[in-house]
Structure formats: structure tokens, C-alpha cells
TrEMBL record:
PANTHER family given in the database record: ASPARTATE AMMONIA-LYASE
Domain Fumarase C C-terminal: 416-468
Residue stretches making up the Fumarate lyase N-terminal domain: 19-350
Descriptive protein name: Aspartate ammonia-lyase
Keywords per UniProt: Lyase
Pfam hit, one: Lyase_1
UniProt source species: Naasia aerilata
Classification via InterPro entries: Aspartate_Ammonia-Lyase (IPR051546), Fumarase/histidase_N (IPR024083), Fumarase_C_C (IPR018951), Fumarate_lyase_CS (IPR020557), Fumarate_lyase_fam (IPR000362), Fumarate_lyase_N (IPR022761), L-Aspartase-like (IPR008948)
Length: 492
């Protein structure tokens, strides 16, 4: 055995009000993070699984350092070191040092402490000092100056959510365009529409795909409307909203710096006591995410139905084959991409319940359950963004139409008789539809044979433009008297 493997890991000792703990000497995190690792082995997922959250913490701490330096409550040299360390956090250089679990007690205190310690030790390193030399630069007294978990954590979460919403909006718009392009590509292909899974009137495959694009565009607008709600924060509130330990000029100063750092139009809440305990914005975003996810899931249900078969199902479209679909049935290919998006929607719907319950459970001046709110929202945003991307790239962009099958289905459909009802009457149309179904006949042929309309008139009335509800150049044809009832075909 390699003797090096037996060498003990170098450690350093850190002390807090509870006692002393050994921390790996090369770790940027410290004693408070170490205690959190022991206390919260719940999710087995560190906060670094959400890089936006880590980078948002860096932005908040950087804004605080600049505001503190501006107000003279933090020496310029310390503020510059903290500022530089925060820049490294925002650049993603220290992501792996954010190790506390995403699900934790303490209203996010462990996350805030993790950030304080990482930033402090990186600042010490930049100053040429050893990690843990807190007499020179302290995680709480310096990095956390004028702050508390109760204003840092929700503000960082809102900044991270703004980043996540922007990324989701980009992917959602790309997916919308993908469906719109397919709508153009399939504009000439007639198909049978369906209501309640029963044959209805004709439409084009292009109209169906265009409707998917339109509904995604509506969700894009609703999500965009939530962003300004996330801009309001409670930085400067410190513990409960009274601003204790913070300079009176801190709140406006830190807001100004946060706006400059993030590029978002942040604004300090008018009532910091209310803002510190209120989780309403998180419910608003969660509900909007659920709406978008559920509507996208419905689209995926439609894609699975339309591509079902390929022989014994609808078989109207072909989804790109992505992988073998069975370990026992050779040649089987499943709609795995729409299926995974369905599951994302199920998760987001469940997360919305979690956010709702966590928001309701807040008590008095603080909501202690923001960690589970953060985890739920950040996961929902991440998964929905990734789901939109894989649906577009691995499914929608490669969809093709089974034009021959669609044409056959339209030709055999009695639904097209609806287009003739203004000209032959409802009763006659119903009788012809019944006869067509019973005798497996073409409706257009029966109309001509009945003498109600000529072949030319039927052709005009059943043109693609008219069946699809588009403007037509043909003049209206007068309504004729109801057709006589045709005898049922003889049984064979």
C-alpha cells in the first residue's frame, strides 16, 4: 500500500461559541460550515448544485463590502480584499467550496456562514495570509458586516432566481420558435382534428404546431412579468427589518451597488419588517412555473399521442428515434424526450405545493423555511430550462409528418361534412355522415351522388383553405333543402 495514502490530512483548528472543530487546512470553508455538514446530511446535494445561487451570494457580499467601505464602517483595504474574493465567487472559481446541503435548518444561516467563510479565507489568501487567520480578516465581523442571514439569504435567492428566469426565458423562446418553424413547414398538410379523443373537423398539422408555439409565447410573457417582483429585496433589514447594526445609509448604498453588480433593477422594499417575513413573491413565481410546466407537459402528451404506433396508433408524426425502447422487443422506440418533460412537470407541480406550505409556515418576523423554498424553485427553474432544451434539440427540431397517412385519414373522415352543413343543412349532413360510416364511403362522393352539390362545389367547399378556417376566394353557395334519409346499407 502506498505510504502516502496513510498520511493524515493536514487540519486547522477553528473555534466558535460552541467549541472547537478540526477543519481541513486547505478548505476555504470553516467551523460553521463543518457543523452544518454534520447537522444536515439530508439531501446529499450541496448548494453548489445551483451555481446561480452561489454566484448571487458573491454579488450580495460584494455589494455589502462596497457599501460598507463607502460609509466608512469597513477599512478600505479589507473591503478591497473582500471585493476581490467575491469576484472570484461570482466567476465560479470557488463553487466546490460551497458544500452545505441545500436543505438545512436555521433559515439559511449555514449557507450564509459558508459564504462568509469562503470569502474570508479567499481574501486572506489574496493578502498572503493563512486560511483561518481571522484576527486579520473575520468572516462575520468583516465579510458579514451590516448583514444578517435574514436579509442576505432571501436577497441572494431573488438574484439567483432572476438569473434562472432569464435563462429559462431564453430556452422557452427557442422552443417556441422551433414549434413555429414546424408550423410553417406543416402548413400545407391537412389532418383530422380531435375533441375528447374523437374525430372532429379538419385542420392543418401546421395549425396544431403553431398553437403550441403560441401557448409557449403566452407562458414566456407570464414569466417575464414575475421578474420585476423579484427585484424587490430587504438588504439593510438585518435581523428582523429594523436595520439594527447597519448604518442608516447602508440600505440605499447597498442597493445601488447591487444594481451595478448584477445589472438587475433592484429596489429596497418600502417596509423592511414586512419584506423580511413575506414569501409571497416565491409563491407567485412557483405558480407561474407550474403553469408553464403543466402546459408544456400537455404539449408533450399530444406529441406522444400523435406519434403513437407507429402502426397501431395515430402515427401522424414521427419523433426522432433517440434510443432503443425495450430490452425485450427488438426495434421498439419510445417517446423518451416528451416523457422526461412530463416528469419534470410532475416534479414542478409537487414543488409548488412545497413552496406554498413553506410560505404558509412562516411565523412572526421571519420565515425559517426559505431553504426548502430555494431548493424547490431553483430545481424547478433548472429542470424546466433543461427540459425545454432537450425537447427542442432532441425532439421537436427533428419531427417529420406522415403525409400519406394524414391524407388517408382526412379522406376517410366524416368530420369534413361539417364544412358542408351551411349549404346542405345539419340534418342532411348528419344522415350522410351516418351513411358514410356505415358503408365506409367517402362523404364527398355521397354528397355528389345525392345531388345536393356538384363535384365542383364540393371541391371548392372542401379546399384546404376552407377546411382549415382560412380565408377563401370561393363565393358562398346557397343552402339547399334538407336531403332525404338514405336507406342503411344492407347487412353482409
Amino acid at each position: 500500500m502506498d505510504s502516502d495514502a496513510l498520511d493524515p490530512i493536514p487540519m486547522r483548528t477553528e473555534t466558535d461559541s460552541v467549541g472547537s472543530v478540526q477543519v481541513p487546512a486547505d478548505a476555504y470553508w470553516g467551523i460553521h460550515t463543518a457543523r452544518a455538514l454534520e447537522n444536515f446530511p439530508i439531501s446529499r446535494r450541496p448548494i453548489s448544485v445551483y451555481p446561480n445561487f452561489v454566484h448571487a451570494l458573491g454579488a450580495v457580499k460584494q455589494a455589502a463590502a462596497r457599501a460598507n467601505a463607502e460609509l466608512g464602517v469597513l477599512p478600505a483595504d479589507k473591503a478591497e480584499l473582500i471585493d476581490a474574493a467575491c469576484a472570484d465567487v461570482r466567476a465560479g472559481l470557488l463553487d466546490e467550496q460551497f458544500v452545505v446541503g441545500v436543505v438545512q435548518g436555521g433559515a439559511g444561516t449555514s449557507t450564509n456562514m459558508n459564504a462568509n467563510e469562503v470569502i474570508a479565507n479567499r481574501a486572506l489568501e489574496l493578502a498572503g495570509r493563512p486560511k483561518g487567520d481571522y484576527a486579520f480578516l473575520h468572516p462575520i465581523d468583516d465579510v458579514n458586516r451590516s448583514q444578517s442571514t435574514n436579509d442576505v439569504y432571501p436577497t441572494a435567492l431573488k438574484v439567483a432566481l432572476c438569473m434562472g428566469v432569464d435563462a429559462l426565458l431564453d430556452e422557452l423562446d427557442r422552443l417556441r420558435l422551433s414549434f413555429a418553424y414546424k408550423g410553417q413547414e406543416f402548413a400545407h398538410i391537412l389532418k383530422v382534428g380531435r375533441t375528447q379523443l374523437q374525430d372532429a373537423v379538419p385542420m392543418t398539422l401546421g395549425q396544431e404546431f403553431r398553437s403550441f408555439a403560441v401557448t409557449l409565447g403566452e407562458d414566456h410573457s407570464r414569466l417575464r412579468e414575475t421578474t420585476p417582483l423579484l427585484y424587490e429585496h430587504n438588504l439593510g433589514a438585518t435581523a428582523i427589518g429594523t436595520g439594527i447594526t447597519a448604518d442608516p445609509g447602508y440600505a440605499p448604498a447597498v442597493n445601488r451597488h447591487l444594481r451595478a453588480i448584477t445589472g438587475f433593477d433592484h429596489v429596497t422594499a418600502q417596509d423592511l419588517v414586512e419584506a423580511t417575513s413575506d414569501a409571497g413573491v416565491f409563491m407567485s413565481l412557483s405558480g407561474t412555473l407550474k403553469r408553464s410546466a403543466i402546459k408544456l407537459s400537455k404539449i408533450c402528451n399530444d406529441l406522444r399521442l400523435l406519434s403513437s404506433g407507429p402502426q397501431a396508433g395515430f402515427g401522424e408524426i414521427n419523433l426522432p428515434p433517440r434510443q432503443a425502447g425495450s430490452s425485450i422487443m427488438p426495434g421498439k422506440v419510445n417517446p423518451v424526450i416528451p416523457e422526461v418533460v412530463n416528469q419534470i412537470a410532475f416534479s414542478i407541480a409537487g414543488a409548488d405545493v412545497t413552496v406554498t406550505m413553506a410560505a404558509e409556515a412562516g411565523q412572526l418576523q421571519l420565515n425559517a423555511f426559505e431553504p426548502i423554498i430555494a431548493h424547490s424553485l431553483l430545481q424547478s427553474l433548472t429542470w424546466l430550462e433543461n427540459g425545454c432544451r432537450t425537447l427542442r434539440v432532441n425532439c421537436v427540431d427533428g419531427i417529420t409528418a406522415n403525409e400519406r397517412r394524414l391524407s388517408q385519414m382526412v379522406g376517410a373522415s366524416v368530420g369534413i361534412v361539417t364544412a358542408l352543413t351551411p349549404y346542405i343543412g345539419y340534418a342532411a349532413a348528419a344522415a350522410l355522415a351516418k351513411q358514410a360510416l356505415a358503408g365506409h364511403r367517402d362523404v364527398a362522393d355521397l354528397v355528389v351522388e345525392s345531388g345536393l352539390l356538384t363535384r365542383e362545389e364540393v371541391t371548392q367547399l372542401l379546399a384546404l383553405e376552407r377546411l382549415a378556417g382560412q380565408p377563401t376566394a370561393t363565393a358562398p353557395i346557397p343552402v339547399l333543402p334538407p336531403v332525404q334519409q338514405f336507406p342503411a346499407p344492407a347487412e353482409r
